[in-house]
Amino acid sequence: MDFGKRLKDEREHQGFTLDDVEQETKIRKLYIKAIEEENFSILPPRVYAIGFVKRYAKFLNLNETEIAEEFKMLAYTENETQEEEEPEHTPLMSAGEKIGKSRFNVKKIAAAIAFLIIAIWLGNILVGYLADRTQKTERTKPPVVEQQPVRQTPKPSPVVNDQAKVKITASQSCWTQIKVDDVVKFEGTMRPGEEQEFTGQDKVYIKAGNAGGLSVMLNDKNIQNFGQIGEVVEYDLLKDGTAKKL
Fold this sequence. Notes:
There is one protein chain. The chain is built from seven helices and nine strands. The protein has helices spanning 3-13, 18-25, 29-36, 46-59, 64-75, 78-81, 95-140, and strands spanning 164-170, 174-180, 183-190, 195-200, 203-208, 214-218, 221-222, 233-238, 243-245. Among the domains are: 3-80, lambda repressor-like DNA-binding domains (434 Repressor (Amino-terminal Domain), Orthogonal Bundle), CATH 1.10.260; 164-245.
């Protein structure tokens, strides 16, 4: 039986609607329907999508590990599902290498001490030379002529923003969650060319699953180095124009 159809049949057998599942699991029914119809392209990034499938399987009292593994085999390529293995052992340093390294460290310490002694000696000579020059300069210095203080025009105070105004433009598909003053205002996948604007009294929170696919402006200033392609980032954008990476 097909993966998605099996989940849908089990849900309907237990008498749950998509709205019921959304309310209980907090997964948007758009994503639940996409899982049941095996329309995996509209799901958020891999780590979130697998979490949704596990949560849905657990809600239906199914084996969440087996369901998640089956989902990964269907939705992702073999290279995406394999994890890179690290070597189990690190080569040990031989006794000769240890002795050579120890001698090298002693030489470095001795050279550093010699350099410090020479630096102190040269420093004393330089201090004496400067002191002598200062005394000669004081003796030949012309009398000081008092000058009237120059009246300066006060500089205007910098403009302080009382709100956090955020504009987001997507150049690639990116799953995004937006909170304005800790209240969720948007959660979903932004498509290329799509724009969103938000205004917070104190801050605007952004979580992006593909940070390199977004261009973000805070109070009409572009946030540099917001993130890389495929990178998951979280930011608090404050009303004083500060972008705080979490």
